[in-house]
């Protein structure tokens, strides 16, 4: 009988361990490569973004603006985002192999009004394990194709001829 009760406890502690050891990596052409824990992200300014699911229901996610994460890594923005820096991009990699791409210009508030966050909650609850612990939310896009589950790294690159 005791073994039955210990198994769920063991599984739950394994999930907590996996999420507590999770790190979002920010690398590539950045001044300061980062590895942000869920705790680190929870201490950053929070922002909301809404997204419709496949059934047309609107869900509100909460997380950190991608622009805030990129600023922490020293990625060019604002007045620095001109000339050669306009050919830089953000590659978002997910644990399931899914990848999406954004130009830095479309993520910069001085150029575009795009709300893109790295979310850790949806409708006030943590993301399901199979969808989290983090999800990219690109609010306002007609298709949620770039709103990716299981985000593991943000890589800044530069288009070269």
From TrEMBL:
Residues 1-18 form the signal peptide. It comes from the Bacteria. InterPro entries: OxRdtase_Mopterin-bd_dom, OxRdtase_Mopterin-bd_sf. Residues 18-139 form the Oxidoreductase molybdopterin-binding domain. SUPFAM superfamilies: Oxidoreductase molybdopterin-binding domain (SSF56524). Keywords: Signal. This is Molybdopterin-binding protein. Gene3D superfamilies: Oxidoreductase, molybdopterin-binding domain.
């Amino acid at each position: 009988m005791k073994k039955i009760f210990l198994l769920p406890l063991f599984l739950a502690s394994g999930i907590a361990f996996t999420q507590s050891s999770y790190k979002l990596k920010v690398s590539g052409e950045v001044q300061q490569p980062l590895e942000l824990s869920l705790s680190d992200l929870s201490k950053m300014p929070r922002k909301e973004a809404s997204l419709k699911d496949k059934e047309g229901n609107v869900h509100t996610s909460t997380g950190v603006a991608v622009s805030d994460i990129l600023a922490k890594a020293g990625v060019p923005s604002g007045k620095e985002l001109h000339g050669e820096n306009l050919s830089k991009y953000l590659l978002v990699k997910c644990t399931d192999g899914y990848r999406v791409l954004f130009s830095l210009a479309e993520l910069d508030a001085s150029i575009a009004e795009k709300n893109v966050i790295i979310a850790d909650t949806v409708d006030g609850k943590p993301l399901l394990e199979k969808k989290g612990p983090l999800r990219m939310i690109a609010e306002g896009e007609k298709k949620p194709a770039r709103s990716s589950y299981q985000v593991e790294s943000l890589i800044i690159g530069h288009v070269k001829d």
